[in-house]
Structures are given as C-alpha cells and as structure tokens.
Amino acid sequence: MRQQINNPEISRKTQAEIKLTTVNSNGCKKKSIKHPAHKWHEWHHIMFDKKIGVLGAVETHLSAAQALEIQDSHLGRHMEIYNSPNLDDPSTRGVAIVLNRELTSTKGVKIHYLIPRRAILAVIPWHGKRTLTALVVYAPAESMDENEAFWDEMTNLWMTIDLPVPNWVGGDTNNVEEPINQLPHRHHSSKPVYCFQNSCKHLLGLLDGWRRVNPNTKAYTYTSTHHSTTHLRINCIYVSPALMKNCSRWTIHNVGKVTDHRMVSVVVSAPGSPYIGCGLYSILLFLLEENFFIKFVIDQGVDKPAL
C-alpha cells in the first residue's frame, strides 16, 4: 500500500474505471508495420474497439527497431509500447506493456526491465493520485526445469532488490496450477507449480482473480495439438487482495485469427468512485414532434392487447 502514499496528482484527467487485458500475441506475422498484414494493426483496432486501457502482451516477437517503427507510425499516436525483446533472436519470445493513450496517462510511467524477453514491470499513473503496478511475464515452455528456474529467478528479484510490488500480473505462465485448468487432466511436476505459487501467490500476495469468481467453471485460453488435443488455462491475471475488491467483469474471450490464444480481461474501478450503471433507454426528444412516429406508437398500442 506504500505505493499509493504521497503520489503526485496525475496531470491528465483519466477515468476511474480501466480495463486490463493480457494475451499471447503469437508473433507479429510481418517484420514491418508498413505491411497491412502486420498484427499490430489488428491489436491497435482491438484495443480501441474493446476500450482496453492496459494490454500485457507476450510472445511479441518484436525487436527494438520494430517496436520503435510502430511507435513512430500513426499507431504511436494512440498507444505507447514498452517492449522487452529477445536480444539473441528478436523473432522469438518477447514481452510488452501497451498503454492506450486515449484512456491512460503515459507521463510519469516507470519501467523495470526485469528479465529480458521474459518479464517487465511498470508503475502506471492511473487515476487521481493512484498508480497501477503491472507485471507481465512469459514463462518458458521449453522444459519444466527452465520454467522452474524462471520462477526461482523471479522470486530472487523481489528478495534482493527493492522493487515495487505488483497489484496486477498478466501473461503466459505455461504452468497448470490446478487440474481444472486442463482438459483432459494429466499429472504435472509439482516443482514448477510450487515455484510459481511461491513467487506469484505467496511472496507477492496475489490471487487468481478469474478462478476466484468462477471456482468451478472450465474455461481455457489455449488449445495444444501436440501429440493429442489438450485444452489449457495458462494465460491468467493475478491481482492483489486490495485490488480484487474493485475488480469486475472477468472474461476469457476469443480475438479472432490474430492469435491462437484467448484473451483474458478484467475491469478495475478506483476505490471510492461512484457506481455508474448501464443507464436507461430513452426516446430522442425530436421524435415526439414527428407525426409518423406518433402514428406508429398509436398503431402499435392498438394492435397489442393489454397485459
């Protein structure tokens, strides 16, 4: 909670409600944003169509030059990309935090590049004096040993460095934490699961928000076709207990052919903000002066029997 103390007022007026989303983007398809088939044209559209404030993207396959090209294009006027590429081979792995410039403040964002291509942390000015500390991770899928070593390294970072504690974690864990998260059920090594729970759930004090809201629901974010078809929930959002109280509208949904993973989203409201419902439908006032509309209403009323 110390991260919410003595923060300066955000210079820009932002909404008290923000949608946070994570997805495995499965690459960018084309090397240059000038190509119309480049995936970030679609991600740009999705962010604005779905009103996404913060997008945690993994497996971005973006080099520093490619991210800069996107930022310098017309897309950069609407979104800010903080990219952590794979320096050895930018066409693989990679994580990024993307801010919607229309809904968030990009001034004063603090970025921590924790593990290149695997983990990035951002302290984002949110609303009023409140900040959102977002961590995006892409755990190794090559082997259980690498997955275990990654979570050990993540734990060691917070044990040895004075880092901000995230209240929102998104990404691809490549880890099946519970049997219900996989279909058909299979036995998994307990060591990577233990390391994952030790770093994300116990050390950082985070909750699997979607599972808390849907304790018995079977829903999956990725379908593997290696050897046999397996459905997995490996793309998750974890939140702090304090933030969990202000979360709503947890969803797992498809985003078309742009990726083979499903997107996970949650809407977070600032504590103390007033409840604003969906509103009520109303007739446009000018219609009350249109004779054809008045006649239509009368005819409908005559034709319909009283309830």
Structural class of the secondary elements? Answer: alpha+beta
CATH class designation: Alpha Beta
Q: Compute the gyration radius: what is it?
A: 22 Å
- Beta-strand fraction estimate: 25-35%
Overall helicity: 10-25%
Order of helices and strands: EHEHEEEEEHEEHEHEEEHEEH
CATH architecture: 4-Layer Sandwich
Q: What is the domain tally?
A: 1
Looking at CATH, the homologous superfamily is: Endonuclease/exonuclease/phosphatase
- CATH names the topology as Deoxyribonuclease I, Chain A
Overall average pLDDT? 89
Number of helices: 7
| Largest sheet data | 6 strands, mixed
Q: Could you tell me the number of beta strands?
A: 15
How do the strands of the widest beta sheet line up side by side? 3-4-2-1-15-14
Organism: Mycena rosella
Keywords: Endonuclease, Hydrolase, Magnesium, Metal-binding, Nuclease
GO cellular component, one term: nucleus
Cofactor: Mg(2+)
Model description:
By secondary structure, the protein is of the alpha+beta class. The chain has a single domain (2-280), classed as Deoxyribonuclease I, Chain A (4-Layer Sandwich). It contains seven helices and 15 strands. A six-stranded mixed β-sheet has the order 3-4-2-1-15-14. Strands 5-6-7-8-13-10 form a six-stranded mixed β-sheet. Strands 9-12-11 form a three-stranded antiparallel β-sheet, with no helix packed on it. Strand 7, helix 3 (144-160) and strand 8 (168-172) form a beta-alpha-beta unit. It is globular, with a radius of gyration of 22 Å.
